[in-house]
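User: hey, got a sec? need non-specific serine/threonine protein kinase folded
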Amino acid sequence: MEEASSSGRPAPPATVALSPQNVLFNKYEMGKLLGCGAFAKVYHARDVSTGQSVAIKVINKSRLNNNASLMANIKREISVMRRLRHPYVVKLYEVMATKRKIYFVMEFVKGGELFAKLAKGRFSEDLGRKYLQQLISALSYCHSHGVFRRDLKPENLLLDENGDLKVSDFGLSASVDQIRADGLLHTICGSPAYVAPEILAKKGYDGAKVDVWSCGVVLFVLTAGYLPFNDPNLMNMYRKIYKGEFRCPRWMSPDLKRFLSRILDTNPETRITIDEIKRDPWFEKGYREIKFDDSGAVVKEEDKKLQDLNAFDIIAFSRGLDLSGLFNESHKAAEDVDRLTVEESPQRVMENVEEVVRAENGGLKLRKMKECGVELEGQNGNFAIALEVYRLTDKLVVVEVKRKAGNSNAFSELWKNKIRPVILQQPELQLAGS
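Assistant: Yep! Here you go:
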């Protein structure tokens, strides 16, 4: 999806006056245009209450008419970005909408695109290593949250005021719910020079492995100053990618050449993984793993097993951020979606659900979707519901249930009369904004 950069260039100088009349939702004072693309414009803005600089991407809804693919990309970008809180990923603060426009309020990244810095000349191996380490840290986090970037290139990598990396533009990303029964993704996407050979083969691909390939191309560009696979004829370039035909320049160290050969391995089965990258002698020089939770507290990654809600998720429970409302679509009937907040562990909630299933004596089919999520089907197929549990705090969880198919009366009977009362063995807690 072609769109404006989510950061733009350095903030306007202090002498640039922002019009007091140009205030969005009585909250953001709009500034100068930072960039524009085919479907969006990005502006610098200031939070009038805090003075914080933000970037606001503005999408005109009229451009979405009869473009289902673009609309799907925008919905996916919202869905993906609201889950991600990492030092090297651009933050999405909130999404707002009017009848005519959608507004993404995002972190303002002052340094602009990595591509602009690269235009001044190739990087040293040490600098290339630094950016790859930050990129791998961000990707490892995204993959652990079920998100695959799929369109990595220097144009989508930004730099903050400290010279640190920020991954942006998640419109072409994929999530685990897009994986087919064969365990692979199948959508053909990505920028030609950075695309993995298995995508060209059109037989399905592993999202994590194609991200690793793109990292290899990015690293090559940063340290060589040119693309590893390039040809004026697109089909010739694709043939080079498919065969893995590239040459490292003479100034590269033997360790870097070896490392690149492992990343740019045309066989995804033998290609180096992110975990292996972190242990590689060339890569690990000076590398420190960042471990944190969504509130910023440092944690051991192996202890973080359950999906937590970040602040955006909590806000998103309010109807004002329902994606169907953003796109002027009909809202799902209120009785088809329900949420409750209880002071209980996620494991205990799931045990309660399984207790109801057992009590039905074969009248219900249960299928686990993830560690704290299940799908329930009536024995005769007259309804299907999905139930997920999210950790809100150390003591509180949010239980969300949706009717996926079938009779709403059967859904209501099962949820409201059987499952809900078992979960609510103590008074329900009210979630602000829901």
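Quick note: The chain has three domains: 23-107, 114-290, 332-423. Let me know if you need anything else on non-specific serine/threonine protein kinase.
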